[in-house]
Amino acid sequence: MNIFQSIGEAIESLNANKMRSALTILGIVIGVAAVIALMGIGSGTQNVITDEINNIGTNLIYVTSGGDADHPEPLTLEDAAAIADPSRAPSVIYVAPTLQGNASVAVTGESTTTQILGITPEFYEVQNTNVAEGIQINQELVESRATVVLLGVDVAEALFDTTTGLVGESVRINGQPFKVIGVLESEGGSAFQNTDDRVLIPLTTAQDRVLRRPNRGQVDLIYVQSSSSESVPPAIDEVSQILRSRHRSTLGVDDFDIISTQSFIDAAETITGVFTIFLGGIAGISLLVGGIGIMNIMLVTVVERTKEIGLRKAMGARKRDILTQFLTESALLSLSGGLIGILLGYLLATAIGQIAAASGTPIAPAIDINSILLATLFSAAIGLFFGLYPANRAANLEPVEALRAE
């Protein structure tokens, strides 16, 4: 018996019990659909997170105070100036010291609490931040300690119900008057923060008026941008050496932390990868249940067709022919369920993506050809694996005993 004859007979046998075959296939359909949908959502989530980090830049380094020291020295403007020295850190192209905290921003009749950032002009380069209208905070405004502010679009909407025509308006930050010199371009919320819900003021103004620190030159964070993603490791080494020499920290104990966006990407990929595998494993349980359903139905089929098996063996059918026949039926059941499950899983993932986008969390499920091939082959393998025992049981029936069966 060739494979085409086996397939033809398998289709005929399954067609004779349409309802039973459909219910058996349903278990595989649900399992494959769950695997495809959940793995697609997991991959889509990973892509969203890594894209957001990549938009920040793969050559960005964050320097904060802390490390392993019991009493870490704060970061200062002098530290930032030393890092910006090209003779000491040739891999570094931009350095942006920053103060950050929360404060109340208000106009007559409206107020909101938002993030306040005290910045220098280099901030725009390292954070890819642009102004939609008005002007940026430049070095002149920093040196003159100007009481000016750039509003994020969410803050502008909350205070003025518009994001245009606001240049020249006045707002109060912690009760102190500031002149609006512009509105930032919308960047949208991310998995880490809402960059539209913030305001920018000159670093010197923040030090004097809004975000006072114990030390006059203290800063909370130093953004460092290297010349390329490949130069991040040497830039980290250069920054580390500069801060160690300036802070005179104990040998082997740093009082600062350095994190790069590449480390964020690596961590995000690891977490979402585990998350995707976890979801796939849960969905795989459905496939296992579907496989057990196939085994159950095939065992019932063997019992029902015992006399047929005996007759075929009496007429010369070999053990291999019987084995092939029943394995073909189980594989056909699981493969049919797998193909339907792939389509259902794609539709389910797409629907979940649209629901997520409508709720303000854009996730584009990523279903690639590898996932489809894996699901197809796995569903066929499930049929072969769980159909092997019933098929082997049928193939080992003795013709005389089979013909006597009622």
Protein traits:
406 residues, two-stranded antiparallel sheet, 2 domains, alpha+beta
Describe the protein's architecture and organization:
The chain has 406 residues and is an alpha+beta fold. It has 2 domains: 3-53 and 266-404, no CATH class; 74-248, no CATH class. Helices cover 56% and strands 18% of the residues. The chain is built from 13 helices and 12 strands. It has helices at residues 3-16, 18-56, 77-83, 123-127, 139-143, 153-160, 203-210, 232-247, 261-304, 306-314, 319-358, 369-395, 399-404; strands at residues 60-65, 75-76, 92-107, 110-119, 131-134, 148-151, 170-173, 176-184, 198-202, 218-219, 221-226, 256-260. Strands 3-4-9-6-8-7 form a 6-stranded mixed β-barrel. Strands 2-10 form a two-stranded antiparallel sheet. Helix 2 runs antiparallel to helix 12 (369-395). The longest helix has 44 residues, at 261-304. The two termini are 27 Å apart. The mean pLDDT is 80.
Brief overview:
The protein is an alpha+beta fold.
Unreliable stretches: none
Q: How many angstroms does the end-to-end distance come to?
A: 27 Å
How much helical structure, as a percent, in the residues?
55-70%
Question: What count of structural domains?
Answer: 2
Largest sheet, if any? 6 strands, mixed, barrel
Strand tally = 12
Give the C-alpha Rg: 33 Å
Task: Give the helix tally.
Answer: 13
SSE-based structural type: alpha+beta
Write the element-wise H/E pattern from the N-terminal end onward.
Answer: HHEEHEEHEHEHEEEHEEHEHHHHH
Looking across the biggest beta sheet, what order are the strands in?
A: 3-4-9-6-8-7
- Give the CA-based shape: elongated
DSSP strand (E) fraction? 15-25%
Mean pLDDT: 80
